[in-house]
Write a structure and sequence with these properties.
Bound molecules: N-(aminocarbonyl)-beta-alanine, zinc ion
Number of strands: 19
Radius of gyration: 21 Å
Oligomer: single chain
CATH class of one domain: Alpha Beta
Largest sheet: 9 strands, mixed
CATH superfamily of one domain: Metal-dependent hydrolases
Shape: globular
Length: about 475
């Protein structure tokens, strides 16, 4: 059904104006000061956006949905994760394929795509995790890039013996990325240092979740970013540091960017909103707040916000990784290194960024759109996403900037049994959300009806 979004304040990464948007055939086909509904097909739905912001659909560049990890599986499937994403204003996400150490890349791609294909309500793509890099893997990785439009890799410098990549393989993979024009995203923490520090803490009887942060302090992450930047500089590859959490890591990234290294930076919403004291809560409550890199001292928050405003950091994602408190996080009751890592936030990201960033004046509305949508679409080659323009996909969020609501596990769409922001009041809500021209959320509630409507967005490599 065609759509007319009328009288909204349209905000993109570089514009802010009032106008009407007409969508037909899944695309935005007209944007004008005023479009007369009487001139449109009789089945056109008119959405009144007066007093509302009209944003491009938000893009989350870092989510985990199908995630075999630390002896268990993350709780969402694509039906619940994409429902949560859409209600929160996110219309496209990029999931990390995290293969087992000996799994063939093509098998991993098929496994992850098989989970998303008939389930996702929103559009999606994948970063291809690379854990093995022998001749067979090399050949399959080339085919996945060429035949399936997967134009980004993912490596872990952390998680020793599970997901981490050797320096030899990192160097070779980045060289391949340079040749193919594929950007490599990286979890930047030194796996060897973490493993040693974890063992030391455990041997001292320090077993609770409050010891997670001391086992991987800021220098461990700064070293990881420095390491990635050095290898990128030597190979000429384009790289992207995921979930950058602290001033020391931001400083390494800024220095690399200043000397011409093609390095983009992501931070994720838990690192702006929460701090290490959350992981220190008694009765094992802190386990809800164990993620990697860990929650940091609050002093880092100002640096993260400033990096968004200055452009050192390009994107704000979630690193949505949902593990239940009961039955999953408690696998690490006697040993913090066994607590499945992750703080879910796929539904909460946009409202938290709006409340903590825009409402406080830390970032302006154009920066908000840039870091939560446009930059991710551009860096990762998501054509048609991340902006409002004629010809773009009709992924649109009509946003009420004054609506107050309370975050809670009782009302969230994810299947996980807790909400790390339980009881927080936020200001702003995605009131109406469209995915390729179809209304999927109304009055902040999900109204989609066909799991599997979401499409794999095929991407072209651009990072030569
Ligand atoms: O704690 C986290 N971040 N869990 C998900 C896996 C990862 O490192 O991204
Ligand atoms: Zn990570
Ligand atoms: Zn992650």
């Amino acid at each position: 059904m065609p759509l007319l979004i009328k009288n909204g304040r349209i905000i993109t990464a570089d514009a802010d104006y009032h106008g009407d948007i007409y969508c037909a055939g899944e695309k935005i086909t007209r944007i004008e000061d005023s479009i007369d509904p009487g001139s449109l097909p009789s089945d056109t739905e008119v959405i009144n956006a007066s007093g509302r912001y009209v944003f491009p659909g938000f893009v989350d560049p870092h989510v985990h949905v199908h995630l075999p990890f630390m002896g268990t599986f993350a709780k969402d499937d694509h039906e619940s994760a994409s429902r949560a994403a859409i209600v929160g204003g996110t219309t496209t996400y990029i999931e990390m394929i995290c293969p087992a150490p000996d799994q063939e890349p093509m098998d991993a791609f098929n496994e992850w795509q098989g989970k998303a294909k008939d389930q996702s309500h929103c559009d999606y793509s994948f970063h291809l995790g690379v854990v093995r890099f022998d001749d067979l893997a090399r050949e399959q990785i080339r085919r996945i890039v060429r035949d399936h439009g997967i134009a980004s890799f993912k490596v872990f410098l952390a998680y020793k013996g599970a997901l981490d990549i050797s320096d030899e393989n990192l160097f070779d993979l980045l060289s391949m990325g340079k040749e193919l024009g594929v950007i490599t995203t990286a979890h930047c923490e030194n796996a060897t240092a973490i493993a040693a520090m974890q063992q030391k803490l455990l041997s001292e009887g320090k077993t609770g979740p409050e010891w997670h942060e001391p086992s991987r302090p800021v220098r461990v992450e700064a070293e990881g970013v420095h390491h990635l930047a050095t290898f990128a500089e030597l190979t000429g590859a384009h790289v992207y540091a995921v979930h950058t959490s602290c001033a020391a890591a931001i400083e390494e990234a800024r220095a690399a960017q200043a000397r011409g290294v093609k390095l983009w930076v992501e931070s994720v919403i838990p690192h702006f909103a929460l701090d290490h004291t959350h992981a220190e809560q008694v009765n094992f409550e802190g386990a809800k707040y164990v993620m990697s890199p860990p929650l940091r001292d609050r002093a880092n928050h100002d640096v993260l916000w400033a990096a968004l405003a200055s452009g050192v950091t390009s994107t704000v994602g979630t690193d949505h990784a949902p593990f239940d408190f009961n039955g999953q996080k408690d696998m690490g009751k006697d040993d913090f290194t066994l607590i499945p890592n992750g703080i879910p936030s796929i539904q909460e990201r946009i409202d938290l960024l709006h409340t903590l960033g825009v409402k406080t004046g830390r970032i302006d509305l154009n920066t908000f759109v840039r870091v939560a949508s446009t930059n991710a679409a551009q860096i990762f080659g998501l054509k048609g996403k991340g902006t409002i323009s004629v010809g773009a996909d009709a992924d649109i969020v009509v946003y009420d900037p004054e609506h107050k609501h309370t975050l809670s596990a009782k009302t969230h769409q994810s299947q996980v049994d807790y909400n790390g922001f339980e009881g927080w009041e936020v200001t702003g809500r995605a009131e109406t959300v469209t995915v390729r021209g179809k209304v999927m959320a109304r009055d902040g509630g999900f109204v989609g009806d066909e799991p599997g409507r979401g499409r794999l967005i095929q991407r072209e490599p651009t990072h030569f």
